[in-house]
Structure formats: structure tokens, C-alpha cells
């Protein structure tokens, strides 16, 4: 029987799946491990100036670690889902501009490290690359953990929101310790004010609601069943921020990162083969 040629989008998605599948260990384990060492070496001024917190190396590493999530979600991008992603990107920029200029809802803060091109000189252009994966990873993990209970929006949405906030409770202390940004007056939680997390509850609620309304949940479950690497970006999160927090003695964030690792193990996704 003659094979049927896939349309261009299908060929691209299959090619991307193949790249990620063949390089799972490198992408999800080696890259975050090297990234953690590079960030710590930069923080301790062990790298020469051109390499110290180099924004383009930083963005390249993040982009590589995001590949499993991008490849996993790509087949789910209907017009409705793509519109939802555009809305989320716009929201990400808008809430960050409000935060930078008003101090709300996250508290007053300033960026301390060059994160690449800036919009208006105030907000990193790559901001959605940092924010949206937190929301999507939390959403996918919670769908798997909840199983049939995920059918109820009153269960699904609040739990995903809490998971997103939990991810920031692990991430923000590490970022502050590295000097990525700093809050005016510091904060009682590893230099982060509690107001920041009240802001994250608001941001996560909006983002999760938009995400949940934009994607076909049955299609998401089906893709999760077929795609073993779809949560590998969360593996990178656990390794990268777990190591950085451990170096600085931020033990509560370390425990939170480990909790997400346990969640991955519970969903039978912590199975990256070494190559």
C-alpha cells in the first residue's frame, strides 16, 4: 500500500517529535544540569565577563529545555487554542508592565540581570518563554494526577492555580538569590515578599482560566497518553531550580521542586532514558 504524505505541518510536528525523542536525556537532564552550574558560576563571578549571565546563552538554554513542551503542544494548536496563546502572551506583557510601573500585583521589583531584548526598556521580550511554560506544565501535571476528577472545572482550575503558585514558590527564591531581580525592601520568604504570591494567585487564575477555555481537554488527554516526553520541561524545572536553591540553602523551595519531581514519578513520566 502506498504511503500517504503528511501535510507540511504534520511533517514538521513528526520531525520535532523525533528530535525530542532521540535527545530526551540531553534536553531534560544535561541542559538544566549544565545551566544550573553556569548560573551558579556566573553568580560567583567564576566566568569571564562575556559569558557571565550571557543573555543569549541563557535564552538559548531555556529555548532548548522548552522543546519537549513545544513539540507536545504543537498538534493541539487549533485556531481557538492559538488565539488563547496569543491572549496569554498579551496578558503576560500587560501584567508585567503594570507590575514594573505600579508595584502591583507582585510588589515593587527591579531586574538585575540582562534577560535579552527589552520592550520599552522595562519588560523582557522573552517573558512568555518564562511564564507560559509554568502554567502549561502545571496544567498538564494536574490533569494527569487528577484523572477523572479533572472533568470538574471547580476542582481542576483551583488545583492548577495552586500548582502554578507552587512552581513560583520554588523558582522566585532561586532567581532572587542569583540576582535576576530584587524586590524593594526584600521579603520574608527568601527575599521575596508574600505580596508577590498574592499577585501570582491573580495571574495564575487568569492564565489557567484562559488556557483551560482555549484547549480541547479530550485532545490534551489523548496527546498526553501518546506523548511520553510532554512533561520533560518540568523535569528540567525540577533539576535546574532544585540545584540552584540547594546551593543557596533555600530548603523550602528545594522541597517544593522535589514535590514536583514526585508528581512526575507518580504520573509515570520520570522515565527519561540515558543515551
TrEMBL record:
The keyword Nucleus does not apply. The keyword Transmembrane applies. It comes from the Archaea. The chain crosses the membrane at residues 25-47, 53-74, 81-106, 126-147, 159-182, 194-213, 234-265. Pfam families: Caroten_synth. Keywords: Membrane, Transmembrane, Transmembrane helix. PANTHER family: SLL0814 PROTEIN. This is Carotenoid biosynthesis protein.
Amino acid at each position: 500500500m502506498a504511503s500517504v504524505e503528511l501535510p507540511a505541518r504534520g511533517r514538521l510536528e513528526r520531525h520535532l517529535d523525533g528530535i525530542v525523542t532521540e535527545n530526551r536525556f540531553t534536553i531534560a537532564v544535561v541542559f538544566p544540569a549544565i545551566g544550573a552550574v553556569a548560573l551558579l558560576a556566573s553568580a560567583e563571578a567564576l566566568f569571564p565577563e562575556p559569558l557571565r549571565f550571557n543573555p543569549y546563552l541563557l535564552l538559548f538554554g531555556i529555548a532548548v529545555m522548552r522543546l519537549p513542551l513545544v513539540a507536545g503542544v504543537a498538534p493541539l494548536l487549533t485556531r481557538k487554542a492559538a488565539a488563547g496563546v496569543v491572549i496569554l502572551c498579551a496578558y503576560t506583557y500587560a501584567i508585567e508592565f503594570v507590575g514594573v510601573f505600579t508595584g502591583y500585583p507582585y510588589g515593587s521589583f527591579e531586574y538585575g540581570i540582562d534577560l535579552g531584548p527589552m520592550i520599552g526598556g522595562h519588560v523582557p521580550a522573552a517573558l512568555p518563554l518564562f511564564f507560559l511554560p509554568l502554567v502549561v506544565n502545571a496544567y498538564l501535571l494536574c490533569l494527569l494526577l487528577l484523572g477523572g476528577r479533572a472533568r470538574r472545572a471547580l476542582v481542576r482550575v483551583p488545583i492548577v492555580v495552586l500548582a502554578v503558585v507552587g512552581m513560583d514558590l520554588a523558582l522566585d527564591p532561586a532567581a532572587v538569590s542569583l540576582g535576576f531581580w530584587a524586590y524593594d525592601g526584600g521579603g520574608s520568604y527568601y527575599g521575596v515578599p508574600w505580596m508577590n504570591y498574592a499577585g501570582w494567585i491573580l495571574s495564575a487564575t487568569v492564565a489557567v482560566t484562559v488556557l483551560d477555555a482555549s484547549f480541547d481537554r479530550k485532545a490534551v488527554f489523548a496527546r498526553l497518553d501518546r506523548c511520553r516526553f510532554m512533561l520533560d520541561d518540568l523535569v528540567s524545572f525540577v533539576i535546574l531550580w532544585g540545584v540552584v536553591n540547594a546551593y543557596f540553602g533555600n530548603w523550602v523551595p528545594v522541597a517544593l521542586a522535589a514535590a514536583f519531581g514526585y508528581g512526575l514519578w507518580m504520573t509515570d513520566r520520570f522515565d527519561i532514558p540515558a543515551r
